[in-house]
Amino acid sequence: MKLVLLSGGSGKRLWPLSNDLRSKQFLKVLEDGEGSRVSMVQRVWGQIEEAGFAGSGYIATGATQTELIRGQLGPDVPLIVEPARRDTFPAIALAAAYLFSVEKVDPGETVAVLPVDPYVEDRFFQTVASLDGVLRDSGADLALIGVKPTYPSEKYGYIVPEAGGDAPGAGGTLRVGGFREKPSEAAAQELIASGALWNCGVFAFKLDYMLNIMAAKGIPLSYDRLAADYESLESISFDYEVVERAQSIAAVSYDGYWKDLGTWNTLTEEMKDARMGRGIVSGDCTNTHLVNETDIPVTVIGLSNVVVAASPDGILVAEKGASTRLKEFIGHDQRPMYEERRWGWVRVLDDRSYDDGTAVLTKRVGIDSGASIGYRLHQHREEVWTVVKGSGEFICNGTYMKIRAGNVVHIPMKTLHGVRAADDLEFISVQTGPKHLENSIMELYGSWEEIEQNCLRA
What we know:
By secondary structure, this protein is of the alpha+beta class.
């Protein structure tokens, strides 16, 4: 059995901490068993490993998230990278082609697809493992997991059992008659009375079921061919293209804890501390959370049922129930002001354009101890680095030097350069160039080992 975790998102639902490059699954706002801060993707990947799926899991994601995933999960995490942003059907088709043509997975093997960020108990993945048997025993095309509702929610979709069908069998399996998206509370109450389950977006199929659908649509089964033609695929959801058209669907009921941490309202319910980052939440606040990623102190006094979130991208002050409307107000008309990378992080301090046609971008860059930035050049920008913390090794057009706090280095346009941190290294980078030309980076070597081998050894 193979697991494919879908990692996407536009970064709007948990703005301002999330952005186009750092979706909600990467925010380190949860705690593991040892009290350390972890992200949703780190938590889920750890649960998958504990469940025995360590060698069977893959993450399907876009190119913009690969560095962040490898930075949080390690360099060896198996990734299936989308060449362009599309919806869930193209993403799953690409994953199927990868498993079939690259990994040589048997077409009769079961593939389970799930979001990368469910907040669940460990035993949820035992239910995921049971989907192989559900497909075999029921003869269904698809097997889903439905969560037994604990209240009539208007926020979730519902899996509706087949009319006149049998009660759930062994393991809570039932035949699916249809789906209902986000009903009213009264309608949700009726659905629950009829045995409907919350749809948690988990489904399984035999690999050849998906391959046959792709072949019928003329979609290549070769990963390389499909990746080359990926942008021509229609952007459409797997639910609409496959699930709603399937002839036979079975669902297994899960009665444990499950939550979609997709809004500030639901996320703060799972945060152990009312305050994260610099600031104060006064004692007369009730059910109020402060999450501050900036160095500026934030004080919240006398407000209840409120979330206050601050990051370099902006500041949010919202009543928790209204936080679900955030996507209506947030656009992506500015560059992300904070990014996590596999080697560290980048924070934009200032981004300006001047009347003479010059653009100046000022950033604070942090490189983790032992990590490195590859040997690269900027096509349209020159840089000046001022080292403010730590020490490291720097190479510029083949010239090697050691750098430490207080050093200033100048990197002309189209000049190859790389750096490795001996300990946690931070510097202020000022990039200058013509504003009508977008900066582009060309990388010659991706690792310090390659730099040493090709540039530092006689």
